[in-house]
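Re: [ENG-882] Designed sequences occasionally contain unexpected residues at chain ends

Forwarding the minimal case from QA. Structure tokens:
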């Protein structure tokens, strides 16, 4: 989130003007930022048998094959 709302350039120029919204000093924000969460399954990598008693879950690198698409949260109809 800090990268979306920089307030100073490296040269300490003030960016508090709402017309000068830059992301990481390069791209200009034209609207409201939207964030998306992508999760990885907790069985997406292999745990060596010597460590299985200590390590119960393993999260591999993100890929479409490792993506967790199950619902989560309170499941009460709210976002």
């Amino acid at each position: 989130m800090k990268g979306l709302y920089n307030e100073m350039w490296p040269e300490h120029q003030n960016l508090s003007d709402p017309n000068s919204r830059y992301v990481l000093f390069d791209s200009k924000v034209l609207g409201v930022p939207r964030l998306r969460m992508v999760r990885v399954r907790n069985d997406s990598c292999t745990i060596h048998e010597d460590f299985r008693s200590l390590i119960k879950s393993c999260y591999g690198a993100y890929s479409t094959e490792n993506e967790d698409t199950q619902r989560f949260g309170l499941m009460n109809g709210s976002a």
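QA comment: On inspection the terminal residues look reasonable. Strands lie at 22-23, 27-28. Proposing we downgrade this to a documentation issue.
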